Amino acid sequence: MSIPPPGQLVDVGGHRLHVQCAGEGTPAVVFDAALGASSLSWSLVQPTVARVTRACSYDRAGFGWSDAGPMPRTAGRIAGELHQLLRLGGVPPPYVLVGHSFGGLVMRLFAARHPGDVAGLVLIEPAIPDDWAAPTGEQRALIARGVRLCGYGASAARHGLATVVSALARAGATGLARLVVSVVSRGGLRREDEGILAPIWKLPPEARAPLGHMWTQPKFFEALGSQIATICESAAEVVRATPDGPGDVPLTVISSAHAHEPRLNADSTLARRSRRGRHVLAPDGGHWVPLDAPQAVIDAIVAMVSEVRRRPDAG
Fold it and tell me: 3-state SS of 271-282?
């Protein structure tokens, strides 16, 4: 099955990245998704934001409609490719950067490297770099398991088994899909591991087929496995690049109101590190805030865009 890309494919230096923009106006809002997610994760947020200003979601290399990219897939490499994508894809600054989870690492690096291009940051339950820059033994075991499971996924995709799992999941036969995955992964997949992937049932129906197709591609598992394998390097890149925090850039950090206390404390602390920082609690759902509480995300982005437009130097 081949599903045409809804946006454009832009060559960023030997491989193409997919970007989909809608709406008009400045600043442009740019979205980056969670660890195992794609542009589809913004399906409930981007259309409404596009009524206010230009809104662009993209797929990291190996995800969605983008080509596979060079390894390793660190946040630093991804941030560099995103900058190229926006420049070559005709999306001029200033930007309001929106990053969810792992995407928060990418957007913080982008902002640190290109401060003149960035008008604001909205980070949604962002990955906490200090937690991963010096991992514990338990965290190293989690990383090793994630890499191993992605290896199984890539092998299954090459042999067509991922297509079966994806079809079962789309049809609602999640129990049978989990059984097949358990066999493929030699029993290594736990229920909590599924949180890496965007919950397909929370997406609008038109987004489910493309997402299911993405999960049948070896490039997806290879890219995801590399992101997991290099998460400590990615976290260390952010720690080195942002020793003084976000500084003067307007920053909104969104947490699920149901998050555990360490997450809430980390997000609140990050927001306070910006002289124009805010910490917002999304009332519904869990870590997948863009799908569980899209209105909270929309409200934060629209407020940031309005704040940027009120500044004398906007645009």
Answer: HHCECCEEEEEE
Q: If pLDDT is split at 50, 70 and 90, which confidence band does 126 have?
A: very high
pLDDT band at 242 (very low <50, low <70, confident <90, very high): confident
All residues at 6 or more sequence positions from 302 whose CB lies less than 8 Å from its CB, including other chains = 49, 52
Closest of 135, 5, 130, 138 to residue 66, by C-alpha: 5
Tell me if residue 206 falls in helix, strand or coil. helix
Report how far residue 234's alpha carbon sits from residue 73's, in angstroms, rounded to the nearest whole number: 9
Could you tell me if 45 and 23 are in contact, meaning their C-beta atoms sit under 8 angstroms apart? Answer: no
Does residue 86 contact residue 30 with C-beta atoms inside 8 Å? yes
7 pLDDT more than 50: yes
Q: What count of Cα atoms within 13 Å lies in the side-chain half-sphere of residue 87? A: 10
CA 164 to chain centre: 26
Helix (H) or strand (E) segment spanning residue 42: none
Which tokens sit at 122? 């909205």
> Which amino acid belongs to residue 31?
F
Strands of the sheet with 16-22, listed across from one edge = 8-11, 16-22, 55-59, 28-32, 95-100, 118-124, 251-256, 277-282
Quick one: which of 272, 222, 220 has its CA closest to 245? 272
In a 3-state reduction of DSSP, which class is residue 253? strand
In 3D space, the residue among 25, 13, 91, 101 whose CA is nearest the CA of residue 58 turns out to be 91
Calculate the alpha carbon distances from 68 to 27, 31, 34, 90 in Å: 29, 19, 18, 22
Pick left, alpha or beta for residue 187 (phi over 0 → left; psi -120 to 50 → alpha; otherwise beta).
Answer: left
Written as six digits, the tokens of 39 are 């542009």
pLDDT of 127-149, one tens digit each?
999 999 999 999 899 889 888 88
The encoded tokens of residue 223 equal 């890219």
